[in-house]
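Protocol step 4 of 5: obtain the predicted structure for the target chain.
Materials: sequence only (see below). No template structures provided, no constraints applied. The aim of this step is simply to have a reference model before the mutagenesis design in step 5. Sequence pasted as it appears in the construct record:
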Amino acid sequence: MHHHLTVTITLLTLLFATTTSTALSNHTDTLSYEFLSKNLGSKSPYHTKYGGGGDGGGGECEPAYLQLVARHGTRNPTQGDQNRFIKLAEFLSSLSEEEVNPEFEWVREWVNPYAVEDAGQLVEAGEREHYELGKRFAERFPSLFPPVYTPSRVKIQTTVVPRASQSGNAFAYASLGQQKGHIGDLSYQPYWSYSQTEALDDTLRFFAICPAYKAEKIDPVPEMLKYREKAFPIIAKNLSSRMGINATLLSDPELLKTIFRACAFEVAQEKEVSQWCSVFTEEDIEAFEFIDDLESYYQKGYGLAINYGIACPLLKELTDNVYGFHKGSADLPNQLVKLNFAHAETIMPLIALLGLHNDAPGVMRWNSTQSVIRNRKWKTSQFSPFAGNIAFLLYRCGSDFQVRVLVNEVEVKLPKCDSVMCPLGQFLEEYGSSKCEFDKLCSLEPSTGADTNGKLMFALYGVTGLCVILLLIVIILFAKLQSAPPASPIEKEGLRHLLSDEEILG
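Step 4 output (structure tokens):
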């Protein structure tokens, strides 16, 4: 009996020691760039699993036409995030020396490191992301990037937002860099790009011009709030234990979100992991990412049909261009490449409209288990990091054509296609958006027959009622005129004078 008790106590002691050791290890070790760069949601820097290789055609198939939809590269925090960073700095500077562990004394002197006037602008890291991306595409598909640049061969469209336009310039400079122009000592070649008017851009900024989408948008997202309510007290406790700051002071959700954003931008811009990211464990980072992904799922993804339905003008243009090239359309004279540079709000709905990264019902819920969360498909760091991109390649295979799609340079099989190389006919049949009715989808006016009839009846009753009121007024005025005494000559003259004035004014 004594022997068994001794063994049991020994095993429990070892188990506690191991658990404590593991917890302390997770809590004190600086997280690696490799882990962080792939788990920061849509604020992740660009990364790809593409490891090189040819154009993917194989056999008699050769790439004939390329369309790319890409998000802008790494940027500065927007004005909203910068305001949060300024408030964070004010809070930290108010702490006394005794309220912070010596290891994190630096937080008391931390200030917002980003220039306010550069809020949301592309940074060097973002320029390099698109430069390297353009370089790889040109090397991988040399036949599509001709030795002599002409605007009709390579068409570049961006949104009106500067970071998107600059991303396009960086990509073009790399992919068309071997083509020498006539400007300056380096014989620079200018590239043509264009943007739609912001209020009319239904292909790349459809999310900004759709009233129904704005009206139906779920904000805030209940699933996100519930999960945050469960996760944030644990994160606050972790930070308190590590930094020495009272957990109550760290209980504000906006404060915790701001610290995570500070970590994310340090990683994306500078590959810095030893400052703000050092206050978190892997579990903390995973929780923050899931919070962001819950929000994007219900606001830009599968959570509502309108979220991705409004991307139909973009998909229609992509499929129409493929069909037009295949038919030798006069609208695409000599065009080999169409490049589009936009935003996460462009990429995410398009991903959903294509049916990619779609989880089973019940996965994107606040009460999902950690195992389910870690294995989810809607993980924006995988398909919409900074510079995230979707490429549509049309291959000429003898007398036939096939379509191949790459997400962040890696081929994927579209759910409605039988294989990675999708026969053109099947691709157009399944993804052609001939029924795209963007204006109708975005209208705030009800479109059902019952609603239309109701409005019509309301209008008829309204007009009838107005006519009755006007008739009663006329009858009353007529009765008063009939009962009034005869007017004097002076009054008659004054009346004629007034009528004359009214006629002149008319």
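Step 4 remarks: The first strand starts at residue 61 and ends at 71. Strands lie at 61-71, 154-158, 193-194, 337-342, 389-397, 400-407, 410-412, 422-423.
Proceed to step 5.
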